[in-house]
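Quick question, first post here. What does this chain look like in 3D?
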Amino acid sequence: MSAVATVPSTSSLQTALRLGALIFPLAMAGCVSTGPSQQELARLPNPAYVAMYGPQPDEVHPIPQTDISEVDPQFLRREVAYGGREQPGTIVVDTAARYLYLVRENGRAIRYGIGVGKEGLAWSGRASVGRKAPWPRWTPTQAMIKREPERNARWAGGMDPGLENPLGARALYLYDDGRDTMYRIHGTSEPWSIGENVSSGCIRLFNQDIIDLYNRVPVGAPVVVLNGPSVIQPDPIVRVSSY
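> Answer (accepted):
Ran it through. Tokens below.
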């Protein structure tokens, strides 16, 4: 006997259509809710920056991924147009704007976000990089110990290098006419502090950024520290990476 196809009745079709009309929007809503919205996608960090601030496992003290999701994007490393008068190779620290510039050729500069401590506001002027140190040892000043004894007194004899060391992965020591100014440009164990005023320290960068800067500047590089209202005009972004 040959099979006979069963044809649904009109009432069955109407019922199925009504059920489909109810179920389809719910199914679609379920599909949409499983992925991020356009607004959520817009808030995700730029993949180039995620890579830029990624882990560095080959360091003496392996550096983990820096969470930049809560960092104001203006403080992430980038190349910008630069209209200042300083010569290429000069470091310019703009404490008011929370930026550090490494001046390059052809009206360009690499701009890094910084955090500024009390010691970072205590000195301004011209200096040079007197020495450089990877994974430096840190010793708090007497002023730091007095200001935060519960935090700093136990390190009066110095803290060994490491991820918890306040100087981070690298330090540049500024000298003026051969004398140590006690002013430092260094990494940080507190990445949330970039773009902020902080209680202690000089000029801090993300560990990934201080490594980048350290690799670009030699001992003897000139440094200009501006301490007051920013005189550097806003800089159009040239590019984020590949520089």
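The first strand starts at residue 78 and ends at 81.
The two ends are 78 Å apart (CA to CA).
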